[in-house]
Design brief:
The chain is built from nine helices and no strands. With 206 residues, the protein is mostly helical.
């Protein structure tokens, strides 16, 4: 017999102990985190690379949410006619392609505000279809009695990830930067003789 503590852990885990649901939950959580970071990243990209105006940034942000107003309701009827699992995989691939096109265009010097707005619209539309698909797929993975718990876990993870995902990524970047800059190799550089260019600047300053 299991201990009371073990029973409590099993009750807390619930559907997460089922492989099919666990894979769906992890995939949905990762996708939600990616969407949240993109909502922050696309306007930031437009500002830093394109020096976009406030109006352009607002248009990019609005474009990410506009598909929910336009296709949010009919998406359910569309998804019902399609294989949900395959649709979700396709949505992830399309999202990857859309987001990857932005840094690629930026590196090539061809990024425009119009492209960022179009990417936000496309990614938002794909997000609508993905979210609708996982809700349609869920009843085929769990029993009717488990449906409430399944919906609660999926929606809870999406809400918990939200903008926090972007903040955690930023925090991780700063922590890694600090760790790298604190390495002994960098600290020892101060004991090295000044480079010729630095020495010339120092003499000129005098």
């Amino acid at each position: 017999m299991g201990t009371p503590a073990t029973g409590a852990v099993h009750r807390a885990a619930g559907l997460l102990r089922q492989r099919n649901f666990r894979l769906l939950w992890i995939g949905e959580t990762i996708s939600s985190g990616g969407d949240a970071m993109a909502v922050v990243g696309m306007p930031l990209l437009a500002v830093t690379v394109l020096h976009a105006s406030t109006v352009a940034v607002a248009a990019i942000t609005t474009s990410a949410y506009l598909p929910w107003l336009i296709i949010g309701l009919p998406a359910g009827a569309w998804v019902d006619r399609l294989p949900c699992r395959r649709l979700m995989i396709t949505c992830d691939i399309v999202s990857f392609t859309v987001y990857a096109s932005l840094p690629a265009s930026a590196w090539a010097g061809e990024l425009t505000v119009a492209q960022v707005i179009a990417a936000a619209l496309a990614a938002g539309s794909v997000s609508v279809l993905f979210t609708t698909a996982y809700r349609v797929l869920l009843p085929s993975l769990v029993t009717p009695q488990e449906l409430i718990e399944g919906n609660a876990k999926l929606q809870g993870s999406a809400a918990a990830v939200g903008v926090r995902a972007a903040l955690w990524v930023l925090m991780t970047c700063f922590a890694l930067s600090a760790a790298l800059l604190a390495t002994p190799a960098i600290r020892s550089a101060r004991n090295l003789p000044p480079r010729p260019a630095a020495a010339a600047l120092s003499r000129a300053a005098r």
